Amino acid sequence: MPRRNQLVTLCFFVVCAGAAVLYLTRNGRIEGHSTYNIDQAEDNIPREKLMKDSVQRLTQGTNLDNPSSRKVEADHQLISILQQRKARLKEQCALMRETHQIQDVALHPPEHLIVNEEHRIIYCNVPKVACTNWKTVFLELGGFAHLNTSGKYHLGPNAKGRLYLDYLHQYNISQRRFMLQNYTKFVFVRHPFTRILSAFRNKLAPNISFFFRHGDEKEQWVSKYGKQIIKRYRGNSEARRVSSNWKQEYDLTFSEFIRFLVDADTDSYNRHWSDIYSMCLPCDIDYDIIGKYETINEDADFVLRLANIDPDITFPKPNLSSMTNSSDPTLADKFYRDVPRSLVYKLAMLYAADFNLFGYHVDPYI
Fold this sequence. Notes:
Layout: H1 3-19, H2 47-59, H3 67-95, E1 113-116, E2 121-124, H4 131-142, H5 157-164, E3 166-167, H6 173-182, E4 184-189, H7 192-204, H8 209-213, H9 215-234, H10 236-244, H11 246-249, H12 254-262, H13 276-280, E5 289-292, H14 296-306, H15 329-337, H16 341-350, H17 352-358
Parallel strand pairs: 2-4, 4-5
Antiparallel strand pairs: 1-2, 1-3
Helix pairs in contact: 1-16, 1-17, 4-5, 9-10, 12-16
């Protein structure tokens, strides 16, 4: 049985109850990247000790009468929250063991794991969870953020990231295994429904500013997905109408997009809306920190300090009232209100693993 179907079967009752819830050289690296020495003496420090020492460094001190000590108290509170998130993840992964086939990530790493050797960190890059902001940080760490590029087009963080960042799958197996065991690993997650809405509004929805400011990119998304969805659910005549003048006639609805996602007969996979469980393998990779989009400023700041990154390198604050504005409860409610309840239930089942692993609830949308 396909993994996706297994997950749906496993989580059916859980969700219903919550609703009634990585060119290899001989050294193993891509040509042009830095050489990694697995025998460096400093690399023999166990990850657990590094994590413990880092947390102690951040939280030492008890005088709460000054701002720095109040920050220490805030760190203590955040650490407690992070521990709760990790404990929940382990608990939920244990419940999924009957159908979850444990993977050796060193042999088959996800393509989304970004590595910085100097600071011994690994980040699972999840689209629509401030991933561009995190790529900007990693580009800064590598000295590539302000690199001038030649040619007609200016390269943004996503394009630069594909060219200059180091990914776990670029290393050889022994290096991958060492990094997975000794580096600090983190992932940022988001409520599945607001992440899906953000993907729709950013890539496929008509009549928002992105539609006009990034016409070429938008047209690619519309051609690959939007027009095909319209053709599938409305027929050839409607598809021809939209294709004749797509900038004016394109009118894909959110409900049609959701129907496309939950339709078992479609190949709807795209990393922008794939579940985090499948992309980042949180039941196979022992993530040290699970950050959340909903508390991203505090969580990201803690990650940077924990990794002992230069204070001059800061996390670009995401504009939570940005173009898509998808985390706004009022806007999210407006979009999901028009989606048939049967589709909302199926969508919750499709993303059941993310709901359960990361402690999100479907109730507000049912």
